[in-house]
Design brief:
two-stranded parallel sheet; 8-stranded mixed β-sheet; alpha/beta; globular; 7 helices
Length: 259
């Protein structure tokens, strides 16, 4: 790859549940500084938004009545699935006026868009070492040492994400708190992983190395991701690799809508 690749009644119960979850978190270490978990920010805790990977129920019913709208990829050449989902997000308004990121697992690429669908930047990513679109049901409660090789997936889906800090004080973008998936600066503490070098290669074949978290170049995170998500939620769309994007997101073809 080149350098341009690729969160009132019932309040007490909820507070108690959150406290118990936080205690469990603090007792569950994650391997690697930037894979460590911390309680979600106020944005993630707000269930008024589609927290976690709830897919937009509107689907085709949220079609705009006017001319179809599309995402602007500028000079990037995304995969057909990346363009298909980005166009659908913009045309349907599925991002609910928030910035969004498309994660193309097959191409090992991230595309960051402003709320209006204008590309702000693209970069290569490192992903879970195991192929698959689902996460083990209890994976977020386990130590990384207890996660078996075939469980190290980056789950596909629609996630409402927000910035937080891990247990070492490093800022991360929580993608799916329940399963412990975050997007963060590339972790280079284990030299044997050669993560920085993997990001710099021209093909996605060596980009599967993490326990499931999404690693991005430091400059991409600091110059684009962090500013875009500061003070707001955003949406991360992780494209599937074992099923169709249409099935995963309940999306529609913007090109077909144009007639």
């Amino acid at each position: 790859m080149s350098a341009t690749k690729r969160l009132p009644g019932g309040m007490v119960a909820r507070a108690l549940g959150f406290a118990l979850a936080l205690v469990g978190l603090l007792l569950t270490p994650m391997a690697g500084a930037q894979d460590k978990r911390q309680a979600p920010t106020k944005y993630q805790a707000a269930d008024a938004l589609d927290n976690g990977r709830k897919v937009n129920a509107g689907g085709a019913s949220s079609l705009s009545q006017g001319k179809a709208r599309r995402a602007n990829f500028l000079n990037e050449r995304p995969s057909p699935d990346s363009r298909y989902i980005a166009d659908w997000v913009v045309d349907s308004g599925d991002n609910q006026g928030m910035p969004f990121i498309i994660i193309d697992k097959v191409g090992a690429m991230a595309f960051l868009f402003g709320a209006e669908g204008q590309l702000r930047g693209a970069a290569p990513v490192l992903l879970g070492s195991a192929r698959g679109d689902d996460a083990a049901a209890d994976i977020g409660t386990r130590k990384l040492a207890d996660v078996r090789p075939h469980e190290r997936t980056t789950p596909a889906g629609r996630f409402v994400a927000s910035l937080a800090k891990n247990l070492r004080g490093n800022e991360i973008l929580w993608v799916d708190y329940e399963t412990g998936i975050a997007l963060h600066r590339v972790a280079t503490s284990n030299a044997k992983d050669r993560r920085a070098q993997r990001l710099a290669t021209d093909t996605p074949s060596d980009n599967r190395i993490s326990y499931g978290c999404i690693n991005v170049p430091v400059t991409f995170y600091e110059n684009l991701v962090s500013p875009a998500f500061t003070g707001t939620n955003g949406v991360v769309y992780v494209l599937p690799e074992d099923q169709s994007a249409r099935k995963a997101f309940g999306s529609y073809d913007v090109a077909a809508r144009e007639g």
